[in-house]
Amino acid sequence: MLSAAYPNRMVVAFVTGGTSGIGAAFARQLAGEGYDLVLVARGAERLAEMATELRALGRTVETIEADLADRDAVARLAARLEDPTRPVDLVVNNAGFGMHTSLIDADVSEHDRGFEVMCRAVLVLSGAAARGMLPRGAGNIINVSSTAGFITMGSYSAIKAWVTSFTEGLAVELRGTGIVVTALCPGWVRTEFHERAGIGASSIPNLMWLDAEQLVTACLRDVKRGKMISIPTVRYRALIWMARHAPRSAIRSFSSAISSSRRKATAR
C-alpha cells in the first residue's frame, strides 16, 4: 500500500459505489489508513452523507455523482483518474448490482446495464488508473469481482468471471511497473446488495455470510502482500479450490441448486 510512499503529499483513493456496502467499508478503512477520498456514486444525498462522515475523520473528500452505465460519465471519471495534477494512488472499482434476469428473456436491457457498469466501466477506469499511475511507478487497482464468477449463475456469474480474468490479465501486463492489481472475490456479504436485487437470501446458511468490514480488511491485507486474487476467509478459499478442480457437471448442478433455492425464497 502507499500510505507512506509519498511523504510530501496526501495519498488519494478513488472508490466507485462508495456510499454503501463493500464500497463504504473500503472508504472508511482507507480513510482510517490516511487516504483522502474521491467517492463516486449515483445518489447525491448519500454521497453527501458519506463525505460528512469521512471529513469528520479529518479526511479531504471529493464527491462525483455519476451513473457508470452512462459512457460519457465514465469518460469523465477516466479523465479524472488520468489528471496528473490530481494524482490517484489507489482505485477500487466496486460499483455493481445483482442480476437474476433470465438468459432467454427477450428484454436484454438489464444485461446491457450489467455489462456497462461491471465490465466496460471496469475496463475503462482500470486502464485510466494505470495510465495515471505509470509515470509514478506505483499504485493499487482493486476490482471487486465475486466467487459467483467460479460457478454458473447466468449473466452475473459470466460478468464476474470476466472481471477476475480481466484483472489477472491487467496484472500480467503491469508486472514490474510497481502497480499492484487485485481482484477481490467475496462470497455472500451482509449488505443491501441482495435486497436491492430482489434476490432471496433466507436459504443461505449463516456460516456463509461475511461482514463487509472484515472482508475489506482481508482484501487490503492481500493487496499489501501483492496478491492478484483475494478470496477472504479459509472457508471460501477452500470452496473455490474445489470449484476450480471439480467436474464442470458438478458445478452446474450446484449452481442450479442455488438458483432454485433463491427463486423459492423470493417467492415466499
Give the overall form. Answer: globular
The biggest beta sheet, please? Answer: 7 strands, parallel
Measured as a percent range, the helix fraction is: 40-55%
Q: Radius of gyration over alpha carbons?
A: 18 Å
Query: What strand line-up does the widest sheet have?
Result: 3-2-1-4-5-6-9
Strand proportion, as a percent range, falls in 5-15%
CATH class: Alpha Beta
CATH topology: Rossmann fold
Mean model confidence by pLDDT: 87
* CATH architecture grouping: 3-Layer(aba) Sandwich
User: How do the SSEs run, as a string of H and E?
Assistant: EHEHEHEHEHEEHEHEHH
**Unreliable residue runs:** 261-268
Count the strands? Answer: 9
What is the SS-derived class?
Answer: alpha/beta
Domain tally: 1
Measured between the Cα atoms of the first and last residue, the distance is 45 Å
Number of helices: 9
Task: Provide a descriptive summary of the structure in words.
The radius of gyration is 18 Å and the shape is globular. α1 (21-32) packs across α7 (212-224). The chain has 268 residues and is an alpha/beta fold. The strands form two sheets. The protein has a seven-stranded parallel beta sheet with strand order 3-2-1-4-5-6-9, with helices on both faces. Strands 7-8 form a two-stranded parallel sheet. α2 links the parallel β2 and β3. It is built from nine helices and nine strands. It has one domain (12-267): NAD(P)-binding Rossmann-like Domain (Rossmann fold, 3-Layer(aba) Sandwich).
